[in-house]
From TrEMBL, chain A:
Organism classification: Eukaryota, Viridiplantae, Streptophyta, Embryophyta, Tracheophyta
Gene Ontology biological-process entries: cytochrome complex assembly
Protein name, per record: Cytochrome c biogenesis protein CCS1, chloroplastic
Region spans: Disordered: 80-104
Compositional bias annotation for Basic and acidic residues: 88-97
Record key words, sorted: Cytochrome c-type biogenesis, Membrane, Transmembrane, Transmembrane helix
UniProtKB/TrEMBL annotation, chain B:
Alphabetic keyword roster: Chloroplast, Cytochrome c-type biogenesis, Membrane, Plastid, Thylakoid, Transmembrane, Transmembrane helix
Membrane-topology descriptor: Multi-pass membrane protein
Gene: ccsA
Annotated family: Belongs to the CcmF/CycK/Ccl1/NrfE/CcsA family.
Subcellular location: Membrane; Plastid, Chloroplast thylakoid membrane
Any one GO molecular function term: heme binding
Gene Ontology biological-process annotations: cytochrome complex assembly
Transmembrane parts of this sequence: 12-32, 44-62, 74-91, 98-120, 140-167, 223-246, 261-276, 288-312
Cytochrome c assembly protein domain ranges (all copies): 68-313
Signal peptide: none
Protein name as it appears in the record: Cytochrome c biogenesis protein CcsA
InterPro entries registered for this protein in UniProt: Cyt_c_assembly, Cyt_c_biogenesis_CcsA, Cyt_c_biogenesis_CcsA/CcmC
Source species: Cucumis melo (Muskmelon)
Amino acid sequence: METHFIISSKMERLILNNPNPSLSKPFLLKTPFLHSVFGHQITPRTAQIRSFSVTCKNKASQDKKLKNVSNKIVLSEAAPPLAEEESDKSGNAEAEVKPGNGSGSTKLVKRLPKRILGALSNLPLAIGEMFTIAALMALGTVIDQGEAPDFYFQKYPEDNPLWGFFTWRWILTLGFDHMYSSTIFLGMLALLGISLMACTYTTQIPLVKVARRWNFLQSGETIRKLECSDILPRASVQDLGVVLMGAGYEVFIKGPTLYAFKGLAGRFAPIGVHLAMLLIMAGATLSATGSFRGSVTVPQGLNFVVGDVLNPSGFLSKPTEAFNTEVHVNKFYMNYYDSGEVKQFYSDLSLFDLNGKEVMRKTISVNNPLRYGGFTIYQTDWGFSALQILKNDEGPFNLAVAPLKINGDKKLYGTFLPVGDVDSPNVKGISMLARDLQSIVLYDQEGKFVGVRRPSSRLPIDINGIKIEIVDAIGSTGLELKTDPGVPIVYAGFGALMLTTCVSYLSHSQIWAIQDGTVVIVGGKTNRAKVEFPEEMDRLLDKVPEIIEPSHNKLKNNDA
Amino acid sequence: MIFLTFEHILTHISFSVISIVITIQLITLLINETVGLYVSSEKGMIVTFFCITGLLVTRWIYLRHLPLSDLYESLLFLSWALSIIHLFAYLKKYKNHLSVSAITAPSTIFTQGFATSGFLTEMHQSPLLVPALQSHWLMMHVSMMVLGYAALLCGSLFSVALIVITFQKAIRIFGKNNNLLNALFSFDEIQYINEGNYFVRNTSFFSSKNYYKSQLIQQLDHWSYRIISLGFIFLSIGILSGAVWANETWGSYWNWDPKETWAFITWTIFAIYLHTRTNKNFEGVNSAIVASMGFLIIWICYFGVNLLGIGLHSYGSFTLTSN
């Protein structure tokens, strides 16, 4: 026979406040509240009831003894003497997977919302959702994202389908060309979020309620049935309590019984993990709906208005006053390694408000963005905008530079200085190529290599009678701008997630003991470190001193 | 130059020592447990550990940044992390230490061997940090990721071992039962294997061999759970710190870059694993299957994405060296 019950928190408080533990007995043993269930199944055992009356018999003498033993030991007056078997059973979440199993047909209607909740918090469902999300993400990395439809027509043609069925129709219908914003993917994430909430509500929070009530096991039989148990001859629970306290356990002693636990946070932390995940999801949703983004390439010396660059990403995106800020690129430059590779990009930016007053000035670089009034400016790219030259000591002329090849970080820019008749159909001239702002390679009218010049060298080069001096290479900075109201929330979620995953590693260990004459029966269990725990318990029990003098014999009265 | 020579020497010492360790372990495994050999193999692992540490420190000194910027260096770090796990188990004197070392030592040799093999030799040249990598987050992000990979690889290898052992047993039982009941459809057979499994688990206390086997399975199960939980922590911290870094560098904390996505897939798979552990029905073989899937996915995440050289995480990938 199985019954469901949970002691109401009100009743628990009543017991907790009761200064005399012997008085609390009639309340709780007779009041199993038979509603409000999440499936803590208990088999009613009467062992606790039996032994309880016994423990109260010698209360006065025990109290006296307790005070003598150690003033460090927490007296358990406040602890409810509930020997709830259900907390043993619900060590892991498994008991709660299928709530409402044992409910009668009359309760069925009442429980419909709970049934839905139960279905959502169903572990296999959550696992299925996670698998689906993982598979969709993997698919998203396999299928090229964000291409034009033509690309998919060619790559996944209908007459030659991949794996026999996979064509572009699938991709475009299901939105797999933009997987991470497709309805299916977002829907799965939302479903997972709902499952997270349902699981936290139906499974984890009830677990906390159970785990928070420490309880004493009143019979040696029960203790011996625990995962890990031992019998200590000639010992006392008080000594055991001191040893356990030294090992970081919270120890409660009540009469001949002892209860100790450690790492309770490890039991609560998974809730924190789930809440942190929800926080991150909420933050990411806000990011997706309420942010602005934009990128701009600005030649050195020019400026732009923040609001012109930023584009809203969703319906929650609201421009702020800071969008009127004008950004002026004072200088753009690069640092190089000795080998000539780019070490770092720098943009010296000034921010002006509507009145033309400079409100901020900062040199940004990759990894070092500028933040002002809710928006952030990142250094993400660079370009070559113009080449300033002197031709036969005339000028300076600014030659516009065009990108010839862009392959990731390796770029090639070129410009052309026409020589002779500009209007003729096959105009010839001097070509100048550059990989970066450091050195310019010059070719003559016939396409032959002439030489390399650095912009700062002021060293002229003579090409078929034309004297060219490169004065300066003017770069343009590639900036990325964004406002993201979701970041603080997401970061809070990140912090919480890191902390709670770490805490989740802790194993919640519980130890019970009962004095049986001169013998102490000890038993314990833990939820995670199932192999380390027995070893730790052995080590601790070895430390418990053996009592030789027969002074503790009077304890024998305790067991009846 | 002296650093390069030193690095070269250390690489070769560590590789040869660990090869000897593996040989010794094979001998002890195949012939019998000889205490002397076992002790020497432990010493060998310690020597390897110090060699790899020396290797990393040398690179750190002469490159003047943490040696975590490309695949070769992260592989070195991976083998270092594996040897740390090994030493941790050794120093803690766990009873099943031998099985831990049976997993970690070969893993170390494979990563170390791969890192130092000719396949990657051109990548040994001191790489210069590209602008995006010049951040304090580099140390935090990459070290956490690689530690996470090491722990997860180790834990999932335990699960693979568990599957192999359990599966062997199932085959044997299946074989026996097949003799008795010839006509069984495949579906029934699978069910029967499961029942047989369950039967063995129950009766294992009566037969000492099966008892040890199920003990071993339990231990493997437990250790893979603990190590994967630890790796999961590292992976979480690694991914999150990477997200914070990306928000500083690329302008968004999540870009759906292939490497990021695969790291997230790995994370999801091991989250599934940890969830299967909360349910008694899934424990054991089912969760081990999930963990073995995780093993493959870590390699896709760690190598596959770099092999393709796609996305923002293409530092030190193969394509870049060919350019």
